[in-house]
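Teaching assistant's notes for section 4

Start the section by putting this record on the projector. Ask students to predict, before seeing the second block, whether Pyridoxamine 5'-phosphate oxidase will look compact or extended. Collect guesses on the board.
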Amino acid sequence: MLPAMARHDRERFLAEPRVGVLGVADTRSDGRAPLVVPVWYGYEPGGEIVVETGRQTVKAQLLRAAGRFSLCAQDEGRPYRYVSVEGPVTEEAPVDPAVREALAHRYLDPEEARAYLAATADQLKDDVVFRMRPERWRSADFAAFAADFAEGAAAEGSGATA
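Reveal the predicted structure now:
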């Protein structure tokens, strides 16, 4: 069994600035495989996932058709941790400039965010946000497992026996 995170831990983890991997059913492939793409996302504990994309992108078309998606965020450093959520799309709306700015500042330092926002300002008229209410959560935090494993390896290396 995976070492799952407590609710507050998984929500705090998801709220940290991580690149998410969005998965959505892809009807173009006869249901054989989902579309899975990295995305910037926004999340506050207890809230909804916010993803921005172009109004006419394949991603947007598939999100509309499916009406739900999954998002996974992970920590690639040791000990490995991840949180995955799945739920319905609750809203598609034109992107609010404040939401776009918050996403840019979430992932870029202040100077880079300002430059990015200025260089991509025309996207405001073409982009939309999709909001998702997390219904299903999956998580794992291997910190305790890693500590137990390290202790066992240290005991073996020292010649100690149980």
